[in-house]
Amino acid sequence: MSATSASAVAVLRAAPDPRLAAALRALAGTVGALALAALLFGAFLVAAGHDPLAVYALLWKGAFGSAFAWQNTLLRAAPLMLTALCVVLPARAGLIVIGGEGAVLMGGLAAAALGVHLGGLGGMALLPMALAGALAGGVWIGLVGLLRERRGVNEAIGSLLLAYIAAALFKHLVEGPLRDPASLNKPSTPALPDAARLGELAGSGVHAGLVIGVLACVLAHLLIHHTPWGFGLKVAGGNPRAGRMVGLPVGRLAIAACGLGGAAAGLAGMIEVAAVHGAANSALAAGYGYAGILVAFVARQQPLAILPTALLVGGVAASGGLLQRRLGLPDATVNVLQGFLFLSILVAEPLFQAVAQRIRRRRPR
Amino acid sequence: MAALELEVVDLGKRFGDFVALQGVSTKVAAGSFHALLGENGAGKSTLVKCIVGYQMPDEGAILVDRREREIRHPADADALGLGMVYQHFTLAPGLSVLENLVLARPRLPAVLDWAAERARLEAFLDTAPLHVPLDAPVATLAAGQKQKAEILKQLYLDRRFLILDEPTSVLTPQEADEVLGLLHGLTRAGRLSVLMISHKFREVEAFCDEVTVLRRGRYVGRGGVAELGRERMAALMMGSEALPEPPARAARVPGVTRLRVADLAVHDDKGVAAVAGMGFDVRAGEIVGLAGVSGNGQRELVEALLGQRAVAAGVLEVDGAAYRGSRAEIDRAGLASLPEEPLKNACVPQMSVADNLALRSFDRPPQTRLGWLRRGTIRARGRELIAAFQVRTPGPDAPIAALSGGNVQRAVLARELAQPRALLIVANPVFGLDFASAAAIHQRLMAARNAGAAVLLVSEDLDEILALADRVLVISGGRIVHETTPAAADRHTLGRHMAAH
Amino acid sequence: MSADVDLWAVPLAVFAGAIRAGSPFLFVSLGECLTERGGRINLGLEGALVMGAMSAYGGAVLSGSPWLGLLAAIVAGGLLGLLHGLICSLPRVNDIAVGIGLMLLGIGLAFFLGKPFIQPRAPGLPAFELGAWSSNPLVREALRINVLFPLGLAACALMHLALTRTRWGLALRCVGDSQDTARALGLPILRLRLSATALGGALAGIGGASLSLFYPGSWNEGLSSGQGLMAVALVVFARWQPWRCLYAALLFGGAGALGPALQAAGVTGAYHLFNAAPYVLTLALMAFASERTGAPGELRLSR
């Protein structure tokens, strides 16, 4: 063994920065889980009579294989970053919120309803629209937190029910009071004026929502890990009793975390409306709220880890069309992969630990 | 159905490098009531766990009725007629006593005939001296009745040797006497032998025939309770270590009222009034001891005082102003607290030791400057406190849940008492600690009082209250039922008030 | 027809809907009830329900027999339930998160495998024509009782008896109430929980079959409207009693029939809002009527 590698081992042994070590451990766990998911999904494909290697090759191609694929992936990753925050922020308060889709719809609808009237504001129209979207989404998920803290309604179920209610409200308004009479076979709100449209990033084909998504994740990271508010939130989420003992407003912190998460998801709705659809219609209910749950869990509820994870999940979604065209696979193929991915993330760590423990137990002392 | 004799010979058990038991031998004669004494960590629990099959001894033998037996599993102990009653209750709270007893019975048929089961149980009850309502859910029973149901279960299962692990810690003195009296009667009738872990000399003297004493995993002595006497038993438990000085109480006149509670009502988890019409004051420079049997509203009261539980009605004031337990109010009041079960009540288990040490201070300079949390400062401060209070931890970044109970307690002590505080709310602060650590905490409480702090000490240990308090209040059924001073107090009167509701 | 007659039809349609749309609620809430009696929550019953609906339809198409389709639904749902139990037996795994994962997987698998069955017609389950005496088509339609509904009544009775009168039921309740007690008694905790979650999944599968083989009686990707998730709220409302699950299911079935019934009667303005009635009802029940009495002690429904 050379001197340098020996010293490298010594450095590793001499307890490196514990935060770095923890991050590395988490990364190893995630990679293991991804491998497990790939294995399970591969076995499923074989059982269904498909060649897993061809599918994986095509997945790669559809997600990252060309400039067009990258563009497609990034367009999907942008809203996923924001909807993942709608899971991550409440998770810091110990809540599992899975109804971000409702906030996307409410945010998009609010932005569309307001934006129609802002043609005269020029480029400034986007700011009130963003605020309206964030506010609508924030109130919607804030309500989930409120129901949880004040009435004991389980937040996972409460947020899902509210997502269903949001979908009904959305349809009612888009097909009724807010409908553009000119939208015949696809009920929509009136088309947004140009001033209220979110533009592209310098000829990339990717809209500016991507920057907003990245920025939101970085801000969330700073908020969670580098402010006393984030510390208090972690305490309140980790053990509410201890939080109350040291005087933290535990309930209010949880509601605020829900509200902030909802605001992020509402912003995602606004971005989709302003950059992609140009109006609020059923295309907004594309499932970004639900896919955000997967992103958050794979990212282990860490805002910065959302960035690569959103690319991964967005890429998988982006390649769905290619799988359908080239291999004749149903579009639900992507959902199956996502299901395996979610379960693998939950199972991998305890499973690996249980196996390691068994091996350790077998080794003679 | 005759009582069993049990003997252990040269029993040893290690956990890694830690020697929990070494060369322990003793004998419980058939039909006797035997006490097992020792400090925390003396190996009592390990010994009884080996006997009932929760752990396997590394060396030595267990003899039941003079035959060596291998007890690898609780089922083996069951088959031999050895049973155990725990400190905490083990009956399923949502099921009725009848359902609990039936479920425990061996050879239960797949389809239940409740009429037959009830008849069978009632026939058994006619021969047992204990009576418990059969159809009420266990959760609705009083503590004494639950403990009786636990013992009833053991008898229903034909146990002829019973181990009791501090069985009276949740009972009033009167309830304890009743339950232990019943067991004593069963030993005299030759139906049962009993081995009881206890730290209450009063109960040992009243009910036990013989005693075995352990210290640091080793056998140190054995003898008749009457021959040994209280002094000798205590000396055996403690060994040659010098007893710490009892805390010195400075003579002082109590000052202004710091904490005032009047007509306070607090509900428990089910929304039932746990505290009602409660009123008392705590003044600067005094320790007020709140004595009572567990489950009479102490937990809910302390939680309300700490802001962990909503106040349903009444007045809760600190320094004459309404108090809700916000960070600003806590700061102004100079409040600190040692709640019971510190990991559950006062720590965030998955956060690091350093973070847990910062729970009171994280949002103030120097830990936070200009809205920015300084993690390096939090860690450095954590290191200092870990060293100053001798918290044994792999490091400031280890999750606090990885620490032993005593070290978690020390960490909370470090956080709460590192700087002088003016108002202390303390609940069973030395529960589970050895003599030396307990004495150190008592010293600190007394020192705080001597320096002018107002201290509320809620404890189920009457000795602790009588040693420390300036005034003694008795809580029962969620209200204060008696007030006295340690000098004027006598145990019998206090016990009667504790049981009154 | 005059407006009066149309409005008179609304309560009739709601009654019919209570039974017709209540059947999936009944089975899936019984499944959730059984799962929760063992101390676990399974949000994945939504996945089991959708998977059951697909399996039932596909099985019926392939075999030509709706009964074989039902069997396929039971097996598929049971397997997903079993998987939930197995994963939750690993240390430090959150049962709610696992449920979400299984919901995703179950729905994904059902859509993937069910793609070829969207077009063909499957033979439906038979029904009892209790309204044959009436000449009114509305009455006849309302009294056409799904064969699964009496099966659901039988399942209620059986579950009630199993929980109260068998060793298995008593032991399961003990596991759900206090794991420590169960361990001290040496009960086979894992096996009991697995049996409860697998049976619970199978019941949810039957609920799915009632969607695809009776009402609405087709297979497509929008078939379920979250009945498997709402089951959790129904069980709270039912206080973990099988018979009360029946009342809850009828109530929710009726609420779900309100929108279509009003639309049929010509009240169309707020169709989508009326469709949200079951969700609003669930939320209201959980917020205002959610006494936790009777909740199994090991259940993590609220901290």
Automatic annotation (TrEMBL), chain A:
Protein's name in the database: Nucleoside ABC transporter membrane protein
Compartmental location: Cell inner membrane
CDD domains, alphabetized: TM_PBP1_transp_TpRbsC_like
Matching PANTHER family: ABC TRANSPORTER, PERMEASE PROTEIN, GUANOSINE ABC TRANSPORTER PERMEASE PROTEIN NUPP
A cellular component term, taken from the record's GO annotations: plasma membrane
Database matches in InterPro entries: ABC_transp_permease
Transmembrane segments: 24-46, 53-71, 126-147, 156-174, 206-224, 245-268, 274-297, 304-324, 336-356
Keywords: Cell membrane, Membrane, Transmembrane, Transmembrane helix
Membrane topology: Multi-pass membrane protein
Organism the protein comes from: Plasticicumulans lactativorans
GO molecular-function terms, A-Z: transmembrane transporter activity
UniProtKB/TrEMBL annotation, chain B:
One Gene Ontology term of the molecular function aspect: ATP binding
Range of residues in the leader sequence: none
Domain of life: Bacteria
InterPro entries: AAA+_ATPase (IPR003593), ABC_carbohydrate_import_ATPase (IPR050107), ABC_transporter-like_ATP-bd (IPR003439), ABC_transporter-like_CS (IPR017871), P-loop_NTPase (IPR027417)
Swiss-Prot/TrEMBL keywords: ATP-binding, Nucleotide-binding
Domain ABC transporter stretches: 6-241, 259-501
Protein name per UniProt: Nucleoside ABC transporter ATP-binding protein
Annotated organism of origin: Plasticicumulans lactativorans
TrEMBL record, chain C:
Subcellular location: Cell inner membrane
Spans traversing the lipid bilayer: 12-31, 43-62, 68-89, 96-118, 143-163, 192-216, 245-265, 271-290
UniProt keywords, alphabetically: Cell membrane, Membrane, Transmembrane, Transmembrane helix
CDD domains on file: TM_PBP1_transp_TpRbsC_like
Xref: InterPro entries: ABC_transp_permease
MF annotations from Gene Ontology: transmembrane transporter activity
Membrane topology: Multi-pass membrane protein
Chief place where the protein resides: membrane
Cellular component annotations (GO), alphabetically ordered: plasma membrane
Annotated Pfam families: BPD_transp_2 (PF02653)
Stated name of the protein: Nucleoside ABC transporter membrane protein
Native source organism of the sequence: Plasticicumulans lactativorans
